[in-house]
């Protein structure tokens, strides 16, 4: 009798499984996804229920395995104990110069171990950190520093950083400036040595009383993003969000013996990779990548799509598959090279994810599904309330019905990614920018009174509920792994006295990730439709001096006038679609020549070389 019952149950199970496999295959994906999500929720829940913060988890790790390697950088390795002691010195030095819990410090440090122990040291005493992009220059840097409301700026080692900050010192007169790695005697007036203070500071453990008043909802870090609403601004990353980011890697089975390889700027990430060894590089090098991975026995690499494209474009070598990498984690990998890259280098698992710094929730592709950034099925939306609504790109607004409600897209369609704002998925917004925070919120989307976070990103959802990134909307595009604010770039170019206006947008280049910057300008002398040598030199110098390399437009186009939308926004859609195709465009166009560091005429020969991939963009 028992055997008959067991046989019946087994038969029922098999029937249900086959039915799901045939008629609802997406449900099986959901089961695996939810199981991974539960691991993540369990890890974060345990930390928060015990009243702990991410820095507490780090200190527990130090107690458990003080001699385990935490950071490998160049020819040196640092154990958890080493990093902890240095972070204690940072914390005590910060207290000595008057910083305390709730204050804000700006960090402008290259990718180096000092970034990590500085980060940890300030967490130990509850000081909030504004992570400054070390590529910023001139007034863009001043704007970022002022937006942070930081009282103190800590600079990492590097003569260039000191030179850049000296140039803007008069614009930030109230800000204390300290430099790491340089003693007082070698610094100019009004700039002090953090290195000297740390040299006499104790490495003893920091009492938790210094951070006892900190709450999980309090800001921990400010990370800058252009988003879709203009100039770079500090996104608020709470202590809770910090915990979530730190536990992110639990979703795909991180192991204690994993070794991570990181070449991406640390100012982009607020999460700590806890329990694993980190091989840190100052910047990405395609020629050194595999050598580093083999030397350090790397098992997981963190990427952006542009990085993998560079690796894929290099000549094939017999050593391509000689490595220990079991997983690549990141975002922006193009669908057309995904399979080829995985096959050529024998990477077993590529985990593509989607997340915005300020976004309430993100998604992750755990299934090696080529091109997908995650999932959002009817079941998953009960847990992660992400939705996709129809969007009118030309009008730059969501499509609404006669009742003023937004319309959900169907499988196979592309729509705007939005997230319902509820208690467990809040949107913390931007520091001191209430009006910009409000601009990121859509109201009355599906019901009167509801509120949704507007990601500014267009996604396609297939029949199995996998999500695919399609494009960005608004005033931002992505190039070289960075978000470029079109407002920021157009303001810099339009400052030149011979330019009337500048429209900046992104254009697609065959074989390249993201969109390359293009500035369509019209001149104050409206009858002039081309740029002379002096014009080109002035634009080149302006962009070189005031913009990071990734934000400098690749192309310049001269137009007769700038068209505006009905709401007086610059109309960019047609310009973006025309790109740099000389068969469609009669206007004069120019391209930035990396060798000459100057804009030159875009000739048919250069255009042919770009399309054939002979010119490195």
Description:
- The structure is a single chain.
- An eight-stranded mixed β-sheet has the order 2-1-11-10-12-13-14-15. It has a seven-stranded mixed β-sheet with strand order 7-6-5-3-4-8-9, with helices on both faces.
- The protein is an alpha/beta fold and 617 residues long.
- Mean pLDDT is 87; it is low at 12-16 and 564-570.
- It is globular, with a radius of gyration of 26 Å.
- Among the domains are: 80-238, Rossmann fold, CATH 3.40.50.980; 370-472, Luciferase, Domain 3 (Luciferase, domain 3), CATH 2.30.38.10; 476-611, GMP Synthetase, Chain A, domain 3, CATH 3.30.300.
- Residues 58-375 form the AMP-dependent synthetase/ligase domain.
Counting helices, strands and paired strands, the structural category is alpha/beta
Which fold name is given in CATH as the topology of the domain at 80-238?
Rossmann fold
Globally, the shape reads globular
Strand line-up across the major sheet: 2-1-11-10-12-13-14-15
Cα-based radius of gyration, to the nearest Å:
26 Å
- CATH structural class of the domain at 80-238: Alpha Beta
Helix content: 25-40%
**Beginning-to-end CA distance, first to last residue:** 72 Å
Number of alpha- plus pi-helical segments: 17
EC number: 6.2.1.3
Pfam family, one: AMP-binding_C
Catalytic activity: tetracosanoate + ATP + CoA = tetracosanoyl-CoA + AMP + diphosphate; a very long-chain fatty acid + ATP + CoA = a very long-chain fatty acyl-CoA + AMP + diphosphate
Enzyme class: ligase
């Amino acid at each position: 009798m028992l055997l008959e019952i067991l046989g019946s149950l087994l038969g029922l199970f098999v029937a249900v499984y086959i039915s799901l496999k045939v008629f609802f295959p997406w449900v099986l994906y959901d089961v695996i996804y939810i199981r991974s999500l539960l691991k993540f929720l369990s890890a974060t829940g345990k930390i928060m229920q015990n009243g702990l913060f991410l820095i507490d988890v780090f200190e527990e790790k130090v107690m458990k395995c003080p001699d385990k390697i935490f950071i490998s950088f160049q020819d040196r390795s640092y154990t958890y104990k080493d990093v902890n002691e240095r972070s204690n010195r940072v914390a005590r030095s910060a207290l000595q110069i008057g910083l305390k819990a709730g204050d804000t410090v700006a960090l402008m440090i290259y990718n180096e171990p000092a970034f990590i122990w500085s980060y940890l040291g300030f967490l130990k005493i509850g000081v909030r950190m504004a992570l400054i992009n070390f590529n910023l220059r001139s007034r863009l840097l001043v704007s970022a520093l002022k937006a942070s409301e930081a009282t103190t700026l800590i600079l990492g080692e590097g003569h260039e950083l000191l030179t850049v900050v000296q140039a803007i010192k008069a614009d930030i007169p109230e800000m204390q400036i300290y430099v790491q790695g340089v003693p007082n005697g070698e610094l100019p007036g009004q700039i002090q040595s953090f290195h000297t203070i740390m040299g006499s500071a104790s490495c003893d453990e920091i009492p938790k009383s210094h951070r006892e008043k900190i709450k999980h909802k309090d800001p921990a870090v400010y990370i800058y993003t252009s988003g879709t609403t203009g100039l770079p601004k500090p996104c608020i990353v709470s202590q809770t969000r910090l915990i979530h980011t730190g536990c992110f890697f639990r979703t795909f089975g991180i192991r204690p013996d994993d070794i991570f390889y990181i070449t991406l700027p640390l100012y982009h990430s607020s999460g700590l990779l806890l329990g694993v060894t980190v091989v840190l590089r100052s910047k990405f090098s395609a020629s050194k990548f595999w050598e580093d991975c083999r030397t350090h026995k790397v098992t997981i690499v963190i990427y952006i799509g542009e990085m993998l494209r560079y690796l894929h474009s290099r000549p094939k070598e017999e050593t391509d598959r000689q490595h220990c990498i079991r997983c690549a984690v990141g975002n922006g990998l193009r669908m057309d090279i995904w399979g080829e890259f995985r096959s050529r280098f024998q990477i077993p698992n590529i985990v593509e994810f989607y997340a915005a710094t300020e976004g309430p929730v993100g998604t992750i592709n755990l299934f090696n599904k080529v091109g997908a950034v995650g999932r959002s099925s009817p079941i998953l939306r009960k847990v992660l309330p992400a939705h996709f609504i129809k969007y009118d790109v030309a009008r730059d607004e969501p499509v609404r019905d006669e009742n003023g409600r937004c319309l959900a897209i169907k499988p196979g369609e592309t729509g705007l990614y939005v997230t319902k704002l509820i208690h467990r998925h809040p949107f913390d917004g931007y520091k001191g920018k209430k009006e910009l925070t409000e601009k990121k919120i859509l109201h009355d989307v599906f019901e009167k009174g509801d509120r949704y976070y507007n990601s500014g990103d267009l996604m396609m959802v297939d029949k199995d509920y996998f999500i695919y990134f399609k494009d960005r909307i608004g005033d931002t595009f992505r190039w070289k792994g960075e978000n470029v604010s079109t407002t920021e770039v157009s303001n810099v170019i339009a400052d030149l006295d011979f330019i009337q206006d500048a429209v900046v947008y992104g254009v697609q280049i065959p074989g390249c990730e993201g969109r390359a910057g293009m500035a369509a300008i019209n001149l104050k002398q409206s009858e002039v439709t081309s740029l002379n040598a002096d014009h080109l030199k002035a634009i080149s110098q302006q962009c070189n001096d005031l913009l990071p390399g990734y934000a400098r437009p690749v192309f310049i186009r001269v137009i007769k006038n700038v068209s505006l939308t009905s709401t007086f926004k610059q109309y960019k859609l047609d310009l973006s679609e025309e790109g740099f195709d000389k068969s469609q465009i009669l206007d004069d166009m120019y391209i930035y020549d990396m060798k000459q560091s100057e804009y030159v005429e875009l000739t048919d020969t250069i255009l042919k070389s770009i399309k054939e991939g002979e010119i490195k963009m």
